[in-house]
Structures are given as C-alpha cells and as structure tokens.
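In the design runs reported in the main text, the only information available to the sequence generator was the tokenized backbone. The following block is the verbatim input for one such run; it is reproduced so that readers can re-run the procedure and compare outputs position by position.
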C-alpha cells in the first residue's frame, strides 16, 4: 500500500521560497514515478512537476518552469519540490502523487493529504 505524507508548506511573501517534502512508503517499480500537484479553492487540480523514476526526466508546465524544481532522494524515499520566486497565484494546497505519469492528475492512483502554501503580495 502506497502512503505519501507531505510537509514543508507555509506562508511566505511574494518572491520567497519554500521546499516541500513528500515521504513515501510502499512504492514499487510500477508506482515510483511521481509528481506534485496543486489545487486552489474553486479550481481544478493541476500538475506542477513530474519526475520519471527510470531516468530522472522532469516535466513542468510553463506557469512554474524555471521557478520550481522537482527532485528525489531514493535512499530516503523522499520527493522534494523546491519553489523559488513564489507568486500569490501559487497559493494552493500542494499534493504529492505516485504511480502515474505526466501532469494530468487523473493518471495517478495515489495522493497524499496535501500541504498548504500561501503566498502574500
């Protein structure tokens, strides 16, 4: 059974940085591709970063490219999302996901409970 626990969210001012962490357990080779998603109130969940476990390929949408970086520490079973130059539009609940591919949340069967990020102007 896959379990994902996010941490690291908080409140920052625009231009600030945060690092989100996702502690994973129960991953197998078929569930090890992972991503980060976010959902603001009244909006659909959107993908902000994806990493392919086989070769470390990463994918970002234009909205966060060059500001967000996804990485993983396989020894610690931990996924990270480094977020720089944060903007108020980045405010959302951020979720870690595993076992899917790409930036479409519908491709993923496993999500964590989320961690809140709030960016003030």
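Verbatim output:
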């Amino acid at each position: 059974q896959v379990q994902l626990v996010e941490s690291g969210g908080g409140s920052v001012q625009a231009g600030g940085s945060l690092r989100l962490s996702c502690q994973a357990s129960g991953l197998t080779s078929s569930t090890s591709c992972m991503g980060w998603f976010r959902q603001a109130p009244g909006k659909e969940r959107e993908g902000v970063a994806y990493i392919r476990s086989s070769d470390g390929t990463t994918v970002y949408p234009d909205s966060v490219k060059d500001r967000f970086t996804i990485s993983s520490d396989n020894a610690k079973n931990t996924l990270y999302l480094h977020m720089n130059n944060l903007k108020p539009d980045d405010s959302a609940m951020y979720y870690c996901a595993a076992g899917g591919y790409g930036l479409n949340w519908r491709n993923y069967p496993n999500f964590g409970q989320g961690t809140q990020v709030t960016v003030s102007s």
